[in-house]
Amino acid sequence: MGGAVRDALSGSTKHMKDIDIAFGCTAVELKSIAQQQQWQNCKVINTGRVVLGLQTGCGLEGKSIRGTNSDEIKFPNQICTLSNDLAMECLCKDFTCNCLFFDPQNKVICDPSGYGYHDAMNKQLRIPVDQQYWLDWVNGNPKKLFRYWVMKAKGYSAIDVQTHNFIVSEFKSRKLKDNTIYKNLNPKAQQKFQHHFLLDMGWPQTEFSKYFS
Predict the structure, then answer these.
(1) Fold entry, domain 3-212
(2) Average pLDDT, the chain
């Protein structure tokens, strides 16, 4: 799901380093299935996510479809609010281009927002819920706002001025500070992130350092 599907559609798989997955059971149940199928190195991490492969970021990683608006909620591994509603799952995602799912069994792409394929192919950033729910979207996990500049560093742009203004305004009002996402970018992407961020926020270089040092 997500970026791997987006990049596969656009043919940009050269730098793909991980593949996110989604499943309709608990993380513990998926680990049990993995063991039965003799899949190697399946690990449940503390947020209820599952890693299949060598380590985080080097294989398959994902979580159950919960239909909740936060990736930060730490459900107990055995108790999890489950759902197979991909449309509700859109509320958890950052943008429609990243809200794409590939079903390997049926070999089909699921686009629950109805805009993901179009936006991925045109490098456009659209919030994956109707405008009346934008605040609900950002309140569930405000760190989604950082992803706006991560995607701009990849050459994406807002679908319209309303989307751009909302994201910039929300970021300014919340005064978010988290350098994790920025530091995970390669040097070239960091440079592009910084360029777009300072341009959009109208801040000097010194202000950027306060947020991402």
Answers:
(1) Beta Polymerase; domain 2 (3.30.460)
(2) 77
